[in-house]
Amino acid sequence: MTEVTTTPRHRRTRIDFHVLGPLLAMVALIVIGASLNLSFLSPENLTNVAARSAFIGIIAVGMTFVITAGGIDLSVGAMAAFVAGVMIMAMNALVPVMGAGVPLIIVGMVIALLAGAAAGLLNGVLIAKVRIEAFIVTLGSMGIYRSLTTWLADGGTLSLDFTLRGVYRPVYYDGILGLSWPIIVFALVAIAGELAMRHTAFGRHCAAIGANEQVAVYSAVKVARVRMATYAILGMLVGLATIMYVPRLGSASGNTGVLWELEAIAAVIIGGTVLKGGFGRVWGTVIGVLILSLISNILNLASIVSPYLNGAIQGVIVILAVVLQRESKSAE
Questions:
Q1: N or C: which end of the chain has fewer CB within 10 A?
Q2: Which residue did the predictor score with more confidence, 64 or 6?
Q3: CA angle centred on 314, ends 309 and 317, rounded to 5°
Q4: pLDDT tens-digit profile of 86-117?
């Protein structure tokens, strides 16, 4: 007589909180925010939250690929400041030649993308080719980019030409269907990132390298090339985020982008990407970005704690997210 084995009912219906956790946390935050302040759910406030999170979100999508491949980048905030400074200086220098018009804005955007990609690729070459630890390389480049920006600004602020600022301003404040351009660009980058992570060889190779680099080499994965590509893409997305950020204030300084690296890494980890590499989730990163923005917005609206403590709160969230990842692994 053959025995029939059945799967326990509770196992078939068990909720995977590792997957649904970020979504449930976001829903909980929305409920808490709505209960603490009636203006929390207003279209103006939600749009403002989404627009402010777009800069970090664009960078965090690129960070997802870097971390999935077993890397890290601590320089993205300083890189954004440097790219913004170079972009502003180049545009100001070209005003007498090209005039303060749309063509110059386009040239400035191209400069930002190229500068970001070059800075990211430099990190990637040092990490993948010279074989220096990612932590050391990006920690060093963080100091270099931050110092260069302060030097270019002579310790002050680099400001965009006043006439050019008026032409550039709509890139941040205008949009379509009630959504500003930063939100739209963030959404498009997130969709492209999710498709690349899930449905392309590049995404699979990133996960393979992060899971086991030696096995990836034996599987004919071009490890150095893929790793350099992740940093170059991240750098280009830093340039794209800078393009969206500069028209908001029209200036850059040595303090631009402070703690952006912490927010980007926090969003990636909260979203479920494994810190040691091997698995990444772009849609989870998007949820992580929104969670961080919602927490900051709730704290500001409810005046629970000083806004100067946002960095401390984000640091605690990063530590808790990593602890929860380790707990979930040990329970498997």
A1: N
A2: 64
A3: 130
A4: 999 999 999 999 988 999 999 999 999 999 99
C-beta separation of 240 from 171 below 8 A: no
pLDDT in tens, 58-86: 999 999 999 999 999 999 999 999 999 99
Can you give the C-alpha Rg of the chain in angstroms? Answer: 21
How far CA 244 is from CA of 55, 87, 193, 291, 297, in Å, comes to: 7, 12, 18, 21, 20
Q: What is the pLDDT of residues 264-291, one digit of tens each?
A: 999 999 998 988 899 999 999 999 999 9
Q: What is the 3 state secondary structure string of the chain?
A: CCCCCCCCHHHHCCCCHHHHHHHHHHHHHHHHHHHHCHHHHCHHHHHHHHHHHHHHHHHHHHHHHHHHCCCCCCCHHHHHHHHHHHHHHHHHHHHHHHCCCHHHHHHHHHHHHHHHHHHHHHHHHHHHCCCCCHHHHHHHHHHHHHHHHHHHCCCCEEECCHHHHHHHCHHHHCEECCEEHHHHHHHHHHHHHHHHHHHCHHHHHHHHHHHCHHHHHHCCCCHHHHHHHHHHHHHHHHHHHHHHHHHHHCEEECCCCCCHHHHHHHHHHHCCCCCCCCCCCHHHHHHHHHHHHHHHHHHHHHCCCCHHHHHHHHHHHHHHHHHHHHHHHHHC
User: What is the number of residues in the chain?
Assistant: 332
**What's this model's pTM, rounded to 2 decimal places?**
0.90
CA–CA dist 21, 26 (Å, integer): 9
Kindly indicate the confidence band of residue 328, based on its pLDDT and cuts at 50, 70 and 90: low
Split at pLDDT 50, 70, 90, the class of 327 is low
- When pLDDT is averaged across residues 235-242 and rounded to a whole number, the result is 97
Q: Which domains does the chain have, with CATH numbers?
A: 43-331 (1.10.3470)
Question: Can you say whether residue 7 is alpha, beta or left, with left for phi > 0 and alpha for psi between -120 and 50 degrees?
Answer: beta
Helices 260-270, 76-98: crossing angle, 10 deg rounding: 120
